[in-house]
Amino acid sequence: FGLMSVAMVMMIGGAVDMGRWMHAYSKTKAAVDSAVLAGTRTLQVSGGDTALALTTARNFYKSNVETRPSVKGDNIDFQVTNAGTGIFATGTAYIDTPFLSVASIPRLVLWKEGASNASEAISEIGGGNGQKLEISMMLDTTGSMSGEKLTDLKAAATDLVNIVLPEGGSDVRVAIAPFAESVRPGSAYLSRVRGTRPNSIKLRDKNGRLTTYSLTSCVSERAGAASYTDDAPDGTNVLGAVYSRSGSCTPGAQIMPLTSDKSQLNGLINSLTANGGTAGHLGSAWAWYLLSPKWASVWSTDSKPANYNDPDVKKIAILMTDGEYNTQYDANGLMTSTNNTSPLNGSSDNQARSVCANMKAAGIEVYTVGFGLTDSRAIQTLQLCASDASTAYLAEDGEQLRNVFRDIAIKLSPLHLTQ
User: Fold this and answer.
1) pLDDT tens for residues 316-371?
2) Rounded distance, CA 103 to CA 126, Å?
3) Helix, strand or coil for residue 360?
4) How many angstroms separate the first and last alpha carbons of the chain?
5) Rounded to an integer, what distance in angstroms lies between the CA atom of residue 331 and that of residue 319?
């Protein structure tokens, strides 16, 4: 009986020690996992602020082990890994075992760096399945965006770029299509997409006076069967010209094809100015052109979009505006408001809806962002353009706009634990 009593006490004591260990282990593992995930998410939304990310991880760990059984030797800490896109845990933690120590087992390990239960969180681009991303952003730079609204847009767009583009990464490329009354391709692409046009035309204005209109550096919609498609700008499918009395046009900023250069993207965003009307159909079309493999011959090698059927690439268009689409062009390349003429392809919002429908049919996922919108038709146009209700956003102020862009970026950059 005496011998059996010793064995029974050892078994009961061992069970107590193991029960304490299991409880402490589950608390420690959960705390470490939540800490590395929180720290990595902070890396994303803070633009790579490693100090803030590590502080977040440590605070999460500390708060999640407050109800854990007494632990000795806990020196768990956190470090940045994976070229600044992840957080991993270092150090060890163990628990004393007063009963099992009789059997020469004085402690049990709860967590150990490099062990099978080690935790590391990294951000993964492309919906969590390892896909590369091609993202185009249509950014509204019309006159109604002047002042604080443009400042808010710059901050929001910069946030998205900083989140989805890891330092030194090449799995994500972003393009930008600023738009206002028209779109400015830039001198490197203008003749390629617009073809040869006369430097000036003479037409009668709405008062019947013969007026000279000069060719600008911007483009408008194209006519014919290619109007709402992403067909290459060849032959009769070239884009429409834009003429004005002054020879000037808006926006001032030109498009930027797909690139992984974060500094170039943020530089363009920071240089945006606001002026002009809202030709949303042109912005929508250019968001598509920048992602279309049919336009590959237009862009340089580094900016050529992947094929639509490439399973390793996901294409995303983000359409942002603050107003009703109200500017379109006639067959001569003049805004219809100039001479009270008929639009070439109908109203801007109807054109945008057709462009969006075809863009989605091509396999592009479309996010829409309305900023301070009150016009019901404008809201409806964005809702119809979005891939589904979950990708249609409305923001009332600058803080909400930044949250929307961050939310989109985070959806495109999910986190996962490597262990």
Assistant:
1) 999 999 999 999 999 999 999 888 899 999 999 999 999 999 999 999 999 999 99
2) 52
3) helix
4) 48
5) 26
